[in-house]
Design brief:
Layout (H helix, E strand, L loop, with lengths): L3 E3 L6 H8 L4 E6 L5 E6 L2 E3 L4 E7 L3 H8 L5 E9 L2 E12 L2 H15 L9 E14 L1
Antiparallel strand pairs: 1-8, 2-3, 2-6, 4-5, 5-8, 6-7, 7-8
Length: about 140
């Protein structure tokens, strides 16, 4: 069976429902040498804004990889899997430090994962401007 493409701004109901379930995800960022860096993360998906969000520490490798990509952002992917179901979102990532952006990412994290993230004064919000969505439900 082939993967089914989705419009990241208007996903079908089953795709969106899967992204609202509580799942651990992965984030893949490019290292400066071009090799992939893959780490487990919590991801929230906001199709109305065509954004996925990840909270992270400013000093983390994933944030450093995004910053190293420059002002155009880093091409990244987030993915989740549960049995035969999987979903991937792709786009350009930017590390946001604005208090409103970080607070919104934290709020959405708490909404999806059922608990607030642990306090972190050096937290940033990784915002991924989505360009592609695919998966199999």
């Amino acid at each position: 069976m082939a993967a089914h493409p989705q419009d990241p701004g208007a996903p079908d109901a089953s795709y969106l429902s899967f992204w609202r379930e509580r799942h651990l995800c992965t984030l893949t960022t490019p290292r400066p040498d071009g090799s992939p860096h893959v780490v487990p993360v919590g991801v929230t998906y906001d199709p109305e804004s065509r954004l996925a969000r990840v909270i992270a520490d400013r000093a983390s490798t994933k944030v450093r990889n995004i910053l190293a990509a420059g002002p155009a952002g880093a091409r990244v992917a987030v993915c989740q899997v549960a049995g035969r179901r999987w979903a991937t979102l792709e786009g350009r990532a930017f590390a946001r430090t604005g208090p409103e952006q970080v607070a919104e990412a934290e709020r959405r994290y708490e909404e999806r994962y059922g608990h607030p993230p642990r306090p972190n004064p050096t937290r940033v919000a990784i915002e991924i401007q989505l360009t592609r969505a695919m998966g199999r439900g």
